[in-house]
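@channel sequence for tomorrow's demo:
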Amino acid sequence: MLNDKQFVGLDWLRFLAAFVVLLTHVRTSTFLQYSELEAESQNIVTLLFFAVTRLGHEAVIVFFVLSGYLVGGKAIQRIKNNTFAPKSYFIDRFSRIMTPLLPALALTSLVSVIVGESVPIEQVIGNLFSLQGFIVSPPSINGPLWSLSYESWFYILAGSVGIVACGHNSKAFGMLLLTMTMVVFSELDVTYLFCWLLGALAYKNKNPEFSALRFAISICVISVGTIMSQLTSETQSFSFINSGYYLPSNSTCEIILASGIALLIRELCIFDKLSNTNKVGKLGILLASFSYTLYLVHYPLLVLMDHYLFDASGTIDSKSLSEFIIKTTACLIASYALYWLFERNTNSVKKLLQLKQKPLIKA
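structure tokens (generated this afternoon):
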């Protein structure tokens, strides 16, 4: 059995999710809506291209389930074994979130100034403390930051439960954090909390060996959940007449999708064809390493490029497709550069905090 750091399948899944989010936003910034394209550009190939590049929201569900598996699942296991260490847990999560987020917010603010957008200081502070969707909104030029508040409060929830269960004299602090989390989720969408918990449950119930049948079932459930989610969500590219009358709620569809992703993750963790020693495995590890930074910074980078260089096109031709490729490539290169400067040093930041942090919470 591979340890968590060798789950190359999950590395590929994490990068592909970030890449789909990137493609979704590059496409919407490069082309007009499908219904607004010129007649000669409206064909089956373009329709498929638009369908694939509008799965950004579903890709975020992948992040939530992965987070539940890798963070929530481990936390539950340690709580069960009475080995949960609050100090180490919060330092690990804080350094993981903040090391890339601080430069991303700085970049967002800088780009906002360049393109003439207002940058309310309360919005920056609110996003820094993961209060978007509760007190403030994400920056206008970095909408994808909406999901960061969910991730942070998922982590706080797991940490507060761990403190209450294993914290002994610090149970009052754990209850305070738990109460704060409940208040925040009274405003946030609890559907995504269920998605996260499905990932955590997948960690608890690991499969002993890879099953092609279970893998196929997970793909089928993901496909059904994705299609249903697309049909029940608002879209600017397509119009599905009265689809909401014949399908479950969008939240139900997202739970179905998350269930399929959780099933897939369980199989990927024991799929022995992917190794961190072969070329495919090494590439997956490399690409996943900067996927978080890619998610955080790609949108302001696109705003900056569009401000100076590009306009949305109503024609699918060599020029517009070239712009699509250029913007995608530029975002990947710039994100990797920022990863190299900041996110790559997450472990160093964590070690520094561990050295300087006094034990405020008894584990």
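heads up for whoever presents: Confidence is low (pLDDT under 50) at residues 1-5.
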